[in-house]
Write a structure and sequence with these properties.
single chain; four-stranded antiparallel sheet; alpha+beta; six-stranded antiparallel sheet
Length: 356
């Protein structure tokens, strides 16, 4: 059976002719039916026979119909579900013993997804789609290419969004570092030019300096759907230190411009009296959740602050999970989770990690 077609033929028509020829062989009928179904799901132009190089004949199947002679190969082009302007190309290789005793193999042909170069980890995981625990379960005599393609789509989309989120977080944190030495909170509204000189004379700088004995640790950012959560923690010995730390953080322009800059909770033991408080900073119930975290961890003499930059997509209850995780990460980085029952007054590793 000669399957070579002119290179200028319509790929969709070429594929239909190819499927019709496969139907003539009883041992390839299930493969043909699967391709036909995939074409009806993804569209006439999403699937075409694979051509290994420009100008070469399309190599769907060897020139004889016997399934013992070689693999069937075709290419599928798909758009990421949540990013329809981003497409990927996947090579589907069907071994002669599929679906009776062997699974198909999928290979990512795209070298880039959007602006990001595909790494070996993603490439390898797609090759292992049908032989990996995290992939698609295959059972003999069952067709599974559609399940595999959907699994690849989900993983590529998650990989792409992770790259975008990491890039967004990196930009925010780089700008944060660039503006860290600003001592005044900048006004949201510009002043009239005639009043600038008078305002400068009358302006009183906020007390933004940290006491010498306070060190703030900052955990790695948590990113979800373009929202960024950063946790910070420090040891305090008196409630009066809390506003000093919060003013210091708010003096940094990048933090002050966040949707919720200083969600916080603190506990401070002074003598026999335990002082504690929290602030939602506009994120309803977030402060009380942080206070509950400190309570169940039985940590005293600590202030924990979470900053959230809103990415434009509502996260629902997930935002509280990320706020708690960001806070706990900061507490762990500062060593507050290592406190003994006898000394709940601060982390013995406080001062390790990223400091201010």
């Amino acid at each position: 059976m000669d399957t070579e077609a002119p290179t200028d033929s319509d790929p969709a028509m070429e594929l239909r002719d190819f499927v019709a020829k496969l139907m003539q062989s009883s041992d390839l009928e299930s493969v043909a039916s699967e391709i036909d179904v995939l074409q009806s799901i993804y569209g006439d132009h999403a699937i075409h026979l694979y051509r290994s190089s420009p100008g070469s004949p399309r190599s769907g199947i060897p020139s004889h119909s016997s399934s013992a002679l070689g693999a069937i190969r075709y290419e599928v082009s798909l758009n990421l579900p949540s990013h329809e302007d981003i497409s990927i190309r996947i090579l589907v290789s069907i071994p002669p013993t599929y679906p009776a005793s062997s699974p198909p193999q999928l290979q990512l042909l795209s070298r880039y997804i959007g602006a990001f170069g595909v790494d070996s980890s993603l490439f390898g995981s797609i090759l292992r789609t049908f032989i990996s625990i995290s992939g698609v379960e295959w059972t003999p005599e069952s067709v599974c290419v559609f399940d595999g393609l959907q699994n690849v789509l989900e993983r590529c989309e998650a990989w792409y969004e992770d790259k975008i989120n990491r890039e967004t977080a990196g930009e925010l944190l780089r700008e944060d570092a660039h503006t860290r030495n600003h001592a005044l909170v900048e006004p949201d509204e510009p002043f009239a030019s005639s009043s600038i000189v008078a305002d400068e004379k009358d302006r009183v700088p906020l007390d933004t300096a940290l006491p010498d004995n306070i060190k703030i640790v900052q955990a790695e950012a948590i990113v979800d759907r373009k929202s960024v959560f950063v946790g910070r923690a420090c040891r305090i010995s008196d409630p009066s230190q809390v506003p000093l730390v919060l003013n210091h953080l708010m003096s940094e322009r990048q933090i002050s411009r966040a949707a919720h800059p200083i969600i916080n909770a603190w506990r401070c033991q002074v003598g026999s009296v335990l002082h504690q408080d929290n602030d939602d900073d506009g994120e309803t119930a977030a402060g009380s959740r942080l206070a509950h975290l400190l309570s169940i961890l039985e940590i005293n003499n600590v202030l924990v602050v979470v900053t959230r930059w809103f990415g434009g997509i509502h996260l629902g209850p997930d935002r509280f999970k990320h706020i708690n995780h960001a806070a706990r990460n900061a507490l762990e980085l500062g060593g507050f989770l290592d406190q003994t029952d006898e000394s709940r007054g601060g982390g013995r590793n406080a001062g390790k990690g990223r400091k201010r």
